[in-house]
Write a structure and sequence with these properties.
Elements: H1 14-17, E1 24-26, E2 33-35, H2 36-39, E3 40-43, H3 60-71, E4 75-80, H4 104-108, H5 111-118, E5 124-129, E6 133-134, E7 141-142, H6 152-172, E8 178-183, H7 187-191, H8 198-225, E9 231-239, H9 257-260, E10 269-274, H10 285-296, E11 308-313, H11 330-350, E12 355-357, H12 406-415, E13 418-422, E14 432-434, E15 437-440, E16 453-456, E17 463-468, E18 473-483, E19 492-497, E20 510-515, E21 525-531, E22 543-548, E23 557-566, E24 569-574, E25 591-594, E26 607-610, E27 616-621, E28 626-635, E29 643-648, E30 655-656, E31 659-661, E32 665-666, E33 671-678, E34 688-693, E35 702-712
Length: 713
């Protein structure tokens, strides 16, 4: 996998590791890395409210894309249907869709989709798509009815349309690095086999199989005929009933799509729309369901057996509402965030290609609430079940009273991190390895097609792998296989270090999951997902050493995968030699920038102050600002009440930021220097930060000399 520019690469400190006192092999290879934002996707479809952030108003498709880009997700899932208004309503009246797009390609060539596909923020596009076919009566287009079987002519038409759109994408977006993935939506719900008799059930299953394979044939033919590079187009099949989760379904397990259709498919990828883990305590269903789908999914030429992703996951905030809050509460918000966080945590630990969250805007209505996408009206937050990251307005009369869930802020911070991945196909991606390690090259009944595994060469010996990164490590997952043991304790231990020289004491890894993959054929073999110790990852950790030890047989402890998560947060540091880093359109007009050093400013030549006693302010526009601090030079010892700060999502509605003041330091001639800091987390969704000077007595007596805050790149 290509390492995107700017991502942290493996640290190569051979001199430090040599001081460990043991023979090590030092690697110069870079540990493959990708933005967490490439892994966690967001869905935008069917939302029933809008935020007034586009000028002119309209283009609901790209309004949602704006919100997902703000979040930091670089993967977006959208719908391609013959009636695009059903997914992207015309709230403003200024959003006319073509009334009769005749093919998938024609829909993607409309101005709104052209803007979406051209956006640099996104690397992966999931298209929930079906071919367009003329209606048998009247005008317009519909989709193929494969439930009554798929004729040879219908199969050819499906293949032709997917080949046409895939070929166009490959030719048009060559060199952009973009990936396009076509998929169906929730195949079991499309089948609705519980409504059919046994004969009709078999007809529908055969029709779906032929339909999905026809789509794949078109995509494959387009790829085979194309010489384009720097672009990829794939096809996926999506299930939603998954017997691996022990959930209850309206059909027998044998009739679930994963059992009755998936084994006969030829798709590149396989997706699971997962709503089997939406209640606390059931989050482990993420791993169980992904396990089950992987066992049923045929290997593909493009991805081999590593061809599974979680195409949908989420929860209902309404499930966690307290009695005192009819729409949402602090408690329901916290429960909702925790559930989504765990679902995503299990997905990346398992190794899913993507995990796509439902949804940016909620489309789930409470009982008795209706919505007409052809004539959309504003709905308020009390009308929704709460599958949202950004809530609808609290009041129809207040168009700016939307709120951001804390899940939004959590996903934003995750999206800014970096995921490093070593599948252990060799020993070259670790920063250093000790002697006494060997690679497995054959499958076992218990290894779940994990051909590559690392183990010791000698029974009872000690051997280790060490990983180092340039950015702080904040999390990790180690996939381990154990024979004749129920726990990794006594077999695998870890050490952390900030510099590769001084190491922590040995610790036990937290067993995030402990599972017997094949209880029939290998009842003593376990697969474990190992995370950081119970005390967490020490601040500043940049090295992780994984040590295999103990008296067990050499092959009885094996490592199958190592994933590291590192921070990717930068600091905006504005010396205020000018206002170039601020947003001039939002600044007040009464600002002056000093470029002259003064004794009272400790030689700081860049300072901002007012040229009148009217309030003055300057604004920074950024994503997910936190930990604001700014330096003020002020005449007189008192600063309280003379400076303020505010936060905003849209630059219109501003929320005060709680401030604390460091002890003032006298500089010269009655002047002081004070660092002012935010004393509480900034509101979720903050895109604008304002610093305000408010003293009505003196325009020059408070001067801001430096501004810093953490932000996610």
């Amino acid at each position: 996998m290509k390492t995107p520019a700017g991502l942290p690469r493996v640290r190569r400190l051979a001199f430090a590791l040599a001081l460990l006192g043991a023979p090590f092999c030092i690697s110069e290879a870079a540990l493959p890395a990708r933005s967490f934002g490439d892994f966690v996707g967001e869905i935008h479809s069917g939302g029933k409210y809008t935020l007034p952030t586009r000028t002119p108003a309209g283009d609901y498709l790209n309004e949602g894309a704006d919100r997902i880009a703000d979040l930091g997700s670089r993967a977006i899932k959208v719908w391609l249907t013959p009636s695009p208004t059903s997914a992207y309503p015309n709230f403003s009246g200024n959003h006319p869709w073509p009334t009769t797009p005749s093919t998938l390609k024609e829909l993607l060539q409309t101005a709104y989709f052209q803007e979406l596909l051209g956006r640099e923020e996104f690397t992966t596009y999931f298209f929930v798509a079906s071919e367009f076919v003329p209606k048998q009566s009247g005008s317009g287009y519909t989709t193929t009815n494969w439930k009554d079987g798929l004729s040879t002519a219908e199969q050819a038409a499906v293949t032709a349309q997917f080949q046409d759109v895939a070929a166009w994408l490959l030719a048009t977006y060559a060199g952009t690095g973009k990936t396009f993935i076509f998929q169906n939506w929730e195949g079991d719900n499309s089948l609705n086999l519980e409504l059919l008799d046994s004969t009709a059930q078999q007809t529908a299953l055969a029709g779906m199989t032929a339909w999905l394979n026809a789509r794949q044939s078109g995509v494959t033919a387009a790829r085979n005929a194309s010489s384009a590079t720097g672009v990829a187009v794939y096809n996926a099949a999506e299930i939603n009933y998954n017997p691996g989760t022990n959930s209850t379904f309206p059909v027998a397990d044998a009739l679930c799509m994963v059992n009755a259709v998936v084994p006969s498919l030829t798709c590149d990828l396989y997706s699971w729309s997962n709503w089997s883990s939406k209640t606390p305590g059931n989050e482990i269903n993420v791993i169980r369901g992904l396990d089950y789908l992987k066992k049923k999914a045929p290997a593909s030429a493009a991805f081999g057996h590593d061809n599974v992703y979680m195409g949908e996951f989420g929860a209902y905030e309404s499930s966690y509402m307290g009695d005192s809050a009819p729409w949402h509460s602090a408690a329901s918000d916290t429960a909702y965030r925790a559930l989504i966080d765990l679902q995503l945590d299990y997905a990346w630990r398992w190794g899913a290609h993507y995990a796509v969250q439902w949804a940016c805007y909620d489309n789930g209505l409470r009982t008795g609430v209706s919505f007409d996408p052809a004539n959309p009206t504003l709905l308020t937050e009390d009308k929704f079940v709460g599958t949202w990251l950004i809530r609808a307005r609290a009041s129809a009369g207040d168009p700016l009273s939307y709120t951001f869930t804390s899940a939004y802020g959590r996903l934003a911070r995750l999206a800014g991190r970096v995921l490093h991945d070593d599948p252990l196909a060799s020993l070259t991606l670790a920063t250093a390895t000790s002697g006494g390690l060997s690679l497995a090259t054959s499958n076992q009944v218990w290894d779940e097609d994990d051909l590559h595994r690392v183990y010791r060469t000698t029974t009872g010996s000690t051997a280790s792998l060490t990983y180092g990164t340039d950015a702080p490590i904040v999390d990790w997952n180690i996939c381990a296989f154990l024979i004749d043991a129920t726990t990794a304790s006594g077999r695998i231990r870890g050490y952390t270090s900030a510099d590769g020289i001084t190491w922590s004491s040995a610790f036990e890894f937290t067993e995030v999951d402990n599972f017997v993959p094949d209880a029939t054929n290998a009842p003593t073999a376990r697969r474990l997902h190992l995370g950081p110790p119970a005390t967490g990852v020490p601040t500043g950790t940049r090295f992780l050493k994984i040590e295999l030890h103990g008296a067990s047989a050499a092959t009885a402890t094996q490592l199958g995968h190592v994933r590291l998560v590192t921070e990717a947060v930068s600091t905006l540091d504005d010396a205020l030699n000018s206002l170039a880093l601020t947003t001039p359109a939002l600044n007040s007009a009464n600002l002056t920038v000093s470029t002259t050093a003064a004794a009272y400013s400790e030689g700081d030549a860049g300072r901002v102050y007012r040229n009148s006693t009217a309030p003055g302010w300057f604004v920074y526009e950024t994503r997910h600002a936190q930990d604001l601090r700014f330096k003020v030079y002020h005449y007189g010892a008192t600063l309280t009440g003379k400076v303020a700060a505010r936060a905003s999502f849209d630059g219109q509605v501003w929320t005060p930021i709680e401030l604390s003041f460091d002890p003032s330091v006298a500089t010269a001639s009655g002047w002081y220097r004070t660092w002012v800091r935010s004393s509480a987390p900034l509101p979720e969704g903050t895109r604008h930060v304002m610093i305000e000077l408010t003293d009505p007595a003196n325009s020059w007596a408070q001067q801001v000399g430096q501004v810093k805050f953490e932000r996610i790149d």
